[in-house]
Design a protein that fits this description.
Number of helices: 31
Structural class: alpha/beta
Distance between the termini: 54 Å
Number of strands: 11
Radius of gyration: 27 Å
Strand content: 5-15%
Strand order of the largest sheet: 4-3-9-11-10
Largest sheet: 5 strands, mixed
Length: 679
């Protein structure tokens, strides 16, 4: 990629004038000054993102931590190490079950089947963000590669689509808010490379795609409200349909609800700022047809989705967790927000973490410069639309900040559905608002409107800011059990001071350099750079399972205390009755709980680990925090056959008397598993 980039640069440099003319021509063709002006820099941004996407997919690159399966399952662990960076064990949601669930769809006996999947029965696949043969996949282009490309390149296509959607969506929304391509590009890189986004990049909820899709939908809706060009209105309607359906099918309500509320506030800004253009009769029929038709199609698609997914949705809605979960406000410590300025020293390898954090993903956040931008609004260029956007976003950001850090009556949480989101699951929205406020403030303070400061004035300002920042950081550090040493604390305070001074003095180039480059250097390798699926495809178990179709036609029970082991076994194409289940298979599990005494324990989304019972106890379930249920059941229990389990895998060889009643599939363990057929 570096060589290709250098070659492109060398070729483009000698033809710079021609390239600029081409970009200007494209910008002129797609720009609509009544909506947002598109210049050659915006066209170059979109082109660069597309080129990088194609190059990354062509190379088969991805950022999964799947290589962590290598030490226990690969014949030669050295062959499955990432190309760059290191795999992160803390990202277990991705490598231990979500990526295996995706690959299970490819390698199973009925590829991409949807009714039953690794994550649950009754079309749980439709709410699990995995590829599936279903009409709704038409609206989820990130999964198209699994239908036409080899598995390794299909997975790369899926992974790289995260960055494609996120960078295109955030840039488009910021461009609409600021009407400045350089500022929009700065804000987009800031958001993408922030510690929070990088550490949560691979969540199974598809957070990057979700944010990008939200931004695309908002831009499409806004254009359909005032646009005049028929072709562009049709494109906007199509983008709205695909974006809205895809956003809904990400199906993680805690992340979606605060984004929806941000959308409400953005609509309030748009209608108040563009009232005349929206309600003019000129082109109203076509605009109304596109806007109404787009949402009608969305409604019809979601009706079809609900028809098939209703059993899974109903079951999940009535689970103890997460269906009946209600989260209070005010659970995010104010100290935690300020501690995000310490992000450069927080990592998955530094322990102990401060007591207010659960793990490194919850430590991560954003550099909160939005409060500083409020003080910059005294001198603006008079753009009323931009000023109205700033204060609308500021109002929403203040309300969300209150929800995160202060107690709010439960009735408000229920009325707004924010009780389903809680505090931590709203941070990505507050971070987006933070970036947007700074970007809008910069766009309103153009170069001509900012007083040029002398070096002495800049030094005085820096000293004044440092005098204020350092004591605050010192208090925060004390509350975090002196997480930073004195030297680190001084560096953090000085770094923050430089950021604030650069923002106050409207020095975009300096601000972008000192904010983006360190983030790229420190957090750019949070997701390792890896290639291919060799950690699974080179495993001996993969060859055994793929070489015997019978092993993939019937259900397995995997006896192991490792959540990762169940994921690996699923990834090679086996259908296992335990492992992680988004929707519990109550019909199966209640066979082992005939009295219903443990219904609340198994009626949840959970890791279901199987433990062999070699004594005389009957089958049963035991809780294991935080959200694991241990299923004690004998491999000789005839009920296993009744629920369709034909094979069993053990990470420890069963006792001789038990093994004598089982038929070994192989005489030796394969990839750490002893394989048997049940009697």
């Amino acid at each position: 990629m570096t060589a290709a980039g250098a070659a492109v640069y060398a070729a483009a440099r000698s033809r710079a004038t021609r390239v600029r003319l081409v970009l200007d021509r494209i910008a002129g063709a797609i720009s609509d000054p009544d909506f947002v002006p598109i210049d050659r820099w915006a066209v170059a941004w979109y082109a660069a993102i597309l080129i990088l996407f194609v190059l990354a997919v062509s190379a088969g690159l991805h950022g999964s931590s799947m290589s962590l399966h290598g030490p226990t399952t690969a014949r030669d662990p050295a062959t499955v190490r990432p190309i760059l960076g290191t795999a992160k064990p803390i990202r277990s949601d991705e490598w231990a079950y979500h990526t295996p669930a995706i690959l299970q769809q490819l390698y199973r006996s009925t590829p991409l089947h949807g009714e039953v999947s690794a994550l649950g029965p009754d079309y749980t696949s439709l709410i699990s963000n995995i590829p599936v043969y279903h009409f709704t996949t038409i609206f989820r282009p990130q999964f198209w590669g699994f239908f036409v490309l080899p598995p390794a390149y299909a997975f790369s296509f899926y992974w790289q689509f995260k960055a494609l959607l996120l960078s295109v969506g955030v840039f488009s929304l910021l461009l609409l808010l600021t009407r400045s391509s350089p500022i929009a590009a700065f804000g987009t890189l800031w958001y993408i490379l922030s510690p929070f986004v990088q550490w949560t990049y691979s969540w199974p909820s598809l957070l990057p795609e979700m944010v990008g899709l939200f931004c695309v939908v908002m831009c499409a809706v806004f254009y359909m409200s005032i646009g005049r060009r028929p072709a562009f209105l049709i494109v906007a309607a199509v983008a709205c349909v695909f974006g809205a359906v895809n956003f809904a099918l990400c199906a993680y309500i805690p992340h979606q609800i605060p984004l929806v509320w941000l959308g409400v506030f953005l609509c309030i800004w748009w209608v108040s700022a563009r009232w005349t253009a929206i309600f003019t009769r000129d082109g109203a029929l076509l605009r109304s047809a596109c806007l109404g038709g787009a949402w009608l199609v969305v409604g019809l698609v979601m009706f079809g989705f609900y028809r098939d997914a209703e059993p899974a949705l109903t079951t999940m809605a009535n689970t103890v967790y997460p269906g009946l979960r209600s989260l209070p406000s005010g659970t995010y410590h104010l100290t935690a927000l300020f501690s995000h300025f310490f992000s450069f020293w927080e990592s998955d390898g530094r322990y102990p973490l401060p007591h207010i954090f659960g793990n490194i993903c919850e430590c991560a956040g954003f550099f909160w410069l939005a409060p500083v931008s409020v003080f910059l609004m005294r001198r603006t260029n008079g753009d009323r639309t931009g000023t109205r956007a700033f204060w609308t976003l500021a109002a929403f950001g203040a309300l969300l900040f209150i929800w995160l850090t202060m107690p709010v009556p439960d009735s408000i949480g229920r009325a707004t559905f924010m009780n389903k989101s809680g505090a931590v699951r709203s941070l990505h929205v507050l971070g987006l608002v933070n970036v947007a406020l700074v970007a809008v403030a910069l766009s309103l303070r153009n170069s001509e409107g900012v007083e040029k400061r002398q070096p002495r004035q800049s030094v005085v300002l820096a000293v004044g800011v440092l005098v204020c920042v350092y004591p605050i950081f010192r208090l925060i550090n004390v509350s975090l059990a002196n997480f930073l040493g004195n030297g680190e604390l001084i560096v953090a305070a000085c770094y923050t001071t430089i950021l604030i001074v650069a923002l106050v003095e409207n020095r975009l180039a300096l601000l972008a350099t000192i904010l983006i480059l360190p983030q790229a250097a420190i957090f750019g390798h949070v997701n390792p750079v890896d290639r291919g699926l060799r950690v699974f495809e080179s495993a001996p178990l993969f060859r055994v399972v793929q070489g015997s179709p019978e092993l993939r036609r019937h259900r397995w029970i995997v006896y192991t205390g490792s959540v990762a082991a169940t994921g690996f076994f699923s990834a090679v194409g086996c259908e296992i009755v335990n492992g992680l289940k988004y929707v519990p298979d109550l019909e199966t599990l209640t066979v082992f709980d005939p009295t219903g005494a443990q219904h609340n324990l198994i009626n949840r989304s959970m890791w279901l680990l199987a433990e062999p019972e070699y004594g005389s106890r009957s089958a049963g379930f035991e809780p294991l925090p935080p959200n694991i249920v241990v299923w004690r059941v004998s491999p000789l229990d005839p009920a296993l056959r009744r629920i369709g389990v034909r094979y069993a895998a053990f990470t420890t060889r069963p006792p001789d008397d038990v093994a004598a009643s089982l038929r070994p599939i192989l005489s030796v363990p394969v990839s750490g598993f002893w394989l048997y057929e049940l009697p």
